[in-house]
Amino acid sequence: MYKDKAVLEIKNIQKFYNSFNALDSISLKVNLGELVVLLGPNGAGKSTLFSIITGLSSADKGECFINGYSIKEDGIRALKSLGVVFQQPTIDLELSVIENLLFHCRLHGLELQKVIKTIERELKSSGLEKKINNKVRTLSGGERRKVELIRSLLHKPLMLLMDEPTVGLDPGSRSDLLKKIVNLKLQGTISVLWTTHLVDEAEKADKIIILNKGKIQAIGTKAQILDKAKEKKLERAFFKIVSKSLT
Ligand code: ADP
Ligand code: MG
Questions:
Q1: Pick from 195, 239, 231, 13: nearest CA to 86
Q2: Which residues line ligand 1 (CB under 6 A)?
Q3: Which residues make Cβ contacts (< 8 Å) with residue 19, sequence separation at least 6?
Q4: What totals of helices (H) and strands (E) does the chain contain, helices first?
Q5: pLDDT, tens digit (0-9, with 9 covering 90-100), for 123-163
Q6: 58/70 Cα distance (integer angstroms)
Q7: CA atoms within 13 A on the CB side of 97
Q8: Hey, which of 46, 48, 50, 197 would you mutate to test ligand 1's pocket, going by the most ligand atoms within 8 Å of its Cβ?
Q9: Which ligand has its closest atom nearest to the C-alpha of 40?
């Protein structure tokens, strides 16, 4: 029903911190069912862009639409379609896994009886069913991220944002999380915008956006990015594109 309709559309976003231009004329689209990776080194502006998409800060210029609703003019409707996993964990360590998840359901006005089955199924598929009553403090970093991911999807968003979700995770947890996101995307009912500075995390993306120093340096499929940089490996293409933009 939403095919070919942009779930996220960003038009000409400009953001300054005093006189520092953190985002310069950023425009991009994410369609339903797409996995888009925003790839950029530290300081590129990834989290700044996230703060604008989530309505936590406002752009100096430009517009951002989620499911057709302007985040500035119609923030409540726009945010309804959004699931978010922030760069810094935002989960209560003193509450149990289930308490954290049910609190989120109440915040969103979800019927607990309806979501409890989903919660049980998702915890099981993440290998966390035995930890449902454990305090989050006792979970590993990877397990906490999985709970945050489950939580972000409970209200069935159309757009999932994840800001460097694998930072600090061991290689096993990192690849688990990547697999989960690829599977989620394959269901075709959600779009994902994932930020990272790790090139290998972009390998499976439908679209890669290379951001550096607040500017989009390249946008396209992996094949298009390789072609643009005249390279065979994404890692080399990324470094070539980013280092050219520094000169
Ligand atoms: P990334 O998430 O890609 O690492 P950020 O969006 O966090 O990048 O930061 C982009 C740039 O903006 C960096 O140079 C950073 O120092 C600067 N910056 C971020 N937040 C602020 C702020 N609140 N005030 C001033 N500068 C900021
Ligand atoms: Mg960041």
A1: 195
A2: 17, 20, 22, 40, 42-48
A3: none
A4: 8, 10
A5: 998 899 999 999 999 999 999 999 999 999 999 999 999 99
A6: 12
A7: 26
A8: 48
A9: 1
